[in-house]
Amino acid sequence: MSKVAIDVPPKGGFSFDLCRRNEMLSKKGVQAPSFLKTGTTIVGLVFQSSAATAAPPTLPPPPPLPLLKPSSASPPPTISTKIKTTLYFFVPIPGAQPHAVILDVEERWLLRHLRVPTRILQRFGSKLSPDGVILGADTRATEGPIVADKNCEKIHFMAPNIYCCGAGTAADTEAVTGIFNFNVLYMVSSQLKLHRYHTGRESRVVTALTLLKSHLFSYQGYVQAALVLGGVDVTGPHLHTIYPHGSTDTLPFVTMGSGSLAAMAIFESKYREGLTRDEGVNLVTEAICSGIFNDLGSGSNVDVCVITKGNTDYLRNHKLPNPRTYVNAKGYSFTKKTEVLLTKITPLREKVEVIEGGDAMEE
Amino acid sequence: MGTSKNSAYAYQIVGGWDRLASLNTWGYPYVTGTSVIGIKYKDGILMTADMGGSYGSTLRYKSVERMKPVGKHSLLGASGEISDFQEILSYLDELILYDNMWDDGNSLGPKEVHNYLTRVMYNRRNKFNPLWNSLVLGGIKNGQKYLGTVNMIGVHFEDNHVATGFGNHLARPILRDEWHENLSFEEGVKLLEKCMRVLLYRDRSAVNKLQIAKITEEGVTLSKPYALKTFWQFSAFQNPTVGAEGSW
């Protein structure tokens, strides 16, 4: 190689000095270090605790009710004002042609056994128990076979009412690609904030969804972020998955990551409509624990985030099922220190003069 | 050809030995069965498998019995290549016949049959000519319950609950949570049905036609094929994008 050692001041931009060496090494068979991937279990769940639609999933569907003939025995809910809302939905009577039906609140209550999107129920009743979205994630970040971070955060902030779980290389913070992929979420979160300032309204989940999916699609899958996006906005609770190539799904319950099958096994066997908030949190915790204990790429603790209208609870380390087993009860005592001869405390605050309203920094 | 599942045998495929691939030696499976799940319960072993034989991505055969009794004390369930399963049954037939001809009052128990299968599978893998199956062998002899598994590379172990294929990922988490000693027959069947239902929802090669087999001291009982009840009426499935126009 060149024997000259010139002291050239570094120019800006990428330094290609090591490219020849890297190519020579890879020709010799040395693998380039791979991305810091996180095996992961992330899950999401929409809970809507309306007593009307709680049915365990293994029963056959209820017999079809006669069309538009309300049973007179049941009382309407105690809603003080009679709200006439225009609702369109399809009545699932087998054999009948689907058609649009307009009902008011009382009629809707009387037909409550029909399966309709319960988001509609939410529009005219905060009398009904609150519903929202619960996100869950494990806390292990792996670098190949090694656990790089035992307690990382995989539930990221997008907006006060929207949170996003990340799997794949999205969830690590160490490697370059991690920071790059985090940029997806930082970027979208900043874009949402600017949009909020511009419109003066709360962000919608579909906005975040569209921003994320168009970004990921434009990178054709090279940004390996698999996300579970959940939030509650004016239109109701929403839960979406976003795959690295940019496709999305909208579902009542989702799992992603290497532990997704273990978590999905729990969801498929135990999910039902009409979960209350606590039942939902328990189910999500169970699903994440299933991922933690049955998948090698997931582990440590369970993070949960419950988003409801107007309120978000970020339960960091909601469950710690993997405590350190052997902890010395005596604690750790340091060996004999050097003798203390003199203690003098000088508060530094007196040494610094803070000028209020001083000149801004000049650049 | 030469995909990830064949990576261990890549050199033959790279060599282009097509005439041997047509004998389905170390090639890849053609007609496959999906998962088998087995659990120990109070009186013996319960095993379940669906009745589908997939030809690649087509569901070609829908009445394939993937569980068969072996001798007096064992029950064998297989996933993977069906023709190799039939070959294994023929080997076991010979084995049991040879054992019966001794007429010495002793009969091969599940442990012995499992060991035999392990040797066969491992030897074939060493010759780069595997029997492309994951087997579940369960049985009970003299009150001793036994449930073991062997797969095509010769990995074998015994446990209280085993599953092959997708069942490993979807059913074992449930079994680890909910299996306990001395399940009654009804509880065991309910547990297996729970696992099969999840597999039906989430495994693309599963069919809704399954058999449950039980083996006790009295012998083997294979149930008639039946279907599970499934639930698709979640309200969020009816109109998933209400309020989220633009998504799907």
What are its keywords?
heterodimer, A: 363 residues, alpha+beta, five-stranded antiparallel sheet, 25% helix, B: 248 residues, Glutamine Phosphoribosylpyrophosphate, subunit 1, domain 1, globular, disordered N terminus
Main sheet summary of chain B: 8 strands, antiparallel
User: What number of domains of chain B?
Assistant: 1
Q: Can you tell me the overall shape of chain A?
A: globular
Main beta-sheet annotation of chain A: 5 strands, antiparallel
Number of strands of chain A: 12
Kindly describe this structure.
The complex is a heterodimer of chains A (363) and B (248). Chain A is α+β, with helices and mostly antiparallel strands and 363 residues long. Chain A is built from 7 helices and 12 strands. Chain A has a domain at 34-49 and 129-319: 4-Layer Sandwich (Glutamine Phosphoribosylpyrophosphate, subunit 1, domain 1), CATH 3.60.20.10. Chain A has helices spanning 19-28, 105-110, 118-123, 176-199, 205-218, 260-270, 277-294; strands spanning 42-48, 131-137, 141-143, 146-149, 155-159, 162-168, 225-233, 236-242, 248-250, 253-256, 302-308, 311-319. Chain B is an alpha+beta fold and 248 residues long. Chain B has a single domain (27-224), classed as Glutamine Phosphoribosylpyrophosphate, subunit 1, domain 1 (4-Layer Sandwich). In chain B, strands 1, 4, 5, 6, 7, 8, 9 and 10 form an 8-stranded antiparallel β-sheet that branches. In chain B, strands 11-2-3-12-13 form a 5-stranded antiparallel β-sheet, with helices on one face. In chain B, α5 runs antiparallel to α6 (185-202). Chain B is globular, with a radius of gyration of 20 Å. The two termini of chain B are 35 Å apart. Classes of the chains: A alpha+beta (363), B alpha+beta (248).
